[in-house]
Amino acid sequence: MRRSKPFDLPVLGYETSALEPHIDKLTMEIHHGKHHAAYVSNLNDGVKGTAYADYELEDIIARISTSDADKKIRNNAGGHWNHSFFWQIMSPKGGGMPQGALATAINGTFGSYDKFKEEFSNAAKGVFGSGWAWLCVGADKKLFISSTPNQDNPLMMQVVKQNGTPILGLDVWEHAYYLKNQNRRPEYINSFYNVVNWSEVGMRYQKALG
Ligand code: MN3
């Protein structure tokens, strides 16, 4: 697929204050308006004059390698994809529990919703430095939890050990929580469950099953 326009910062589907008290307004303003905007701008700069210049974001992500030459594009394409995804899997009307087929799959894979939360939280706590925790659907259509450093994600099949389609993801870079939670990453992780948009995650699960 060929791309004719520069990459754009997506509009948030809710106010920056809408996830309060779980995720604060100032963090959302800076995270979306500054950090995500910088990934978009640096991605537009980075692809210029490269083989990726007119590739769609998904095609860049699928093809990006661990080479030094790809590093800037890898970080910024990942940053753009990961944040665009992250804003959508949260909602001011979020929280609660997964429903339907996704609930069945979570219970079947992890034993219960609480056990899933424990495993996902441990993956998020276990990221050393900056990165993400993910709930994914693998090629075998089974759920798995993983984590990636920096702005890598499980769609980067040349980069990650375990390739899959993310249906839930949590940004554990300090910029995602430091203003409110300072060094208390586990507190931020617990807050996240109050804003997870399980209906969006459930739709992404169905789509990943094909
Ligand atoms: Mn971030």
Summary?
By secondary structure, the protein is mostly helical. It has helices at 25-47, 57-63, 71-88, 100-110, 113-125, 178-181, 185-192, 198-209; strands at 131-137, 143-149, 165-171. The protein contains 8 helices and 3 strands, in the order αααααβββααα.
Detailed description of the structure:
The chain is mostly helical. It has two domains: 25-88, Orthogonal Bundle (Helix Hairpins); 100-209, 3-Layer(bab) Sandwich (minor pseudopilin epsh fold), CATH 3.55.40.20. The chain has eight helices and three strands. It has a three-stranded antiparallel β-sheet with strand order 2-1-3, with helices on both faces. The radius of gyration is 17 Å and the shape is globular. The model has no long low-confidence stretch (mean pLDDT 97). Bound molecules: manganese (III) ion (MN3).
Percent range of helical residues: 40-55%
Total number of β-strand segments? 3
Shape: globular
Largest sheet: 3 strands, antiparallel
Bound molecules: manganese (III) ion
Distance between the termini: 20 Å
Number of helices: 8
CATH homologous superfamily label of the largest domain: Iron/manganese superoxide dismutase, C-terminal domain
- Strand and helix order: HHHHHEEEHHH
Strand content: 5-15%
The total tally of domains equals: 2
